[in-house]
Design goal:
Layout lengths: L1 H35 L10 H27 L2
Helix pairs in contact: 1-2
Length: 75
């Protein structure tokens, strides 16, 4: 019983940690784009960075889920 609760707590902490990192990456890229797009002439060159920021934050969110599942069911 103690091992199962330790696994759940560990998985939850890992998911929260990586999920918070995903939120931080999203905020950083959002702030960057908000500042960069204040200049309408620079808007065309920022689409690649927009997709990279979106992909990075989504990847970290999915990684949080995968790490939690690995800690719950494999470890």
């Amino acid at each position: 019983m103690e091992l199962a609760s330790a696994q759940v707590i560990g998985a939850g902490l890992a998911a929260i940690g990586v999920g918070a990192a995903a939120a931080g990456v999203g905020i950083v890229f959002g702030s960057f784009l908000q500042g960069a797009l204040r200049n309408p002439a620079a808007a065309d060159g920022q689409q690649g960075r927009l997709f990279i920021g979106f992909a990075a934050s989504e990847l970290l969110g999915l990684l949080a889920f995968v790490i939690a599942m690995i800690l719950l069911f494999v470890a």
